């Protein structure tokens, strides 16, 4: 087979419909988790200058969530069964990092957004040209997430004491949440 021809499906390969369902499910879960992280951060830092930065990012995440809230029923895709867990875990992560300080809250944003950047880039690549509208949404949201990462960096995220272990733990948890939400 040449590089320009597509290989035949193998046992265990997802159908195009299931692939899209998984993408929508996990992205909905991720945007829901992001909204909850920012809610936790705002509960602690809402009346600070950093609170205004968080509020702006949270508003973009709400718009992303609204998009996936619309796409799930349009495509007849069920949301993840783990939404109650993400409700609590997202808020707890946001509040906990905010309690560590404004820079730690920004470090949380940087860690999550770096994982989401990788995740959205892989999704866009896997869609190819089969789902141009969905791919465009993913690429647009990816740019927003990169802007959030940059905002976190600009607000001193890397100056957080323990930045490396903190962000490594958050990235590992984010990757696990992605893996679980894709499937459950």
Estimate percent helicity: over 70%
Low-confidence stretches: 1-5
Largest sheet: none
Please give the radius of gyration in angstroms: 17 Å
Alpha-beta content class: mainly alpha
H/E element sequence: HHHHHH
Task: Kindly estimate the percentage of residues that lie in beta strands according to DSSP.
Answer: under 5%
Number of strands: 0
State the CATH class.
Mainly Alpha
Please state the second-level CATH architecture.
Answer: Up-down Bundle
Shape: elongated
Q: What fold name stands as the CATH topology?
A: Ferritin
N- and C-termini, Cα separation: 35 Å
Structural commentary:
The protein has 184 residues and is mostly helical. The protein has a single domain (16-183), classed as Up-down Bundle (Ferritin), CATH 1.20.1260. The protein has helices at residues 16-45, 49-74, 83-99, 102-127, 132-154, 163-183. The protein is elongated, with a radius of gyration of 17 Å. 36% of the residues are buried.
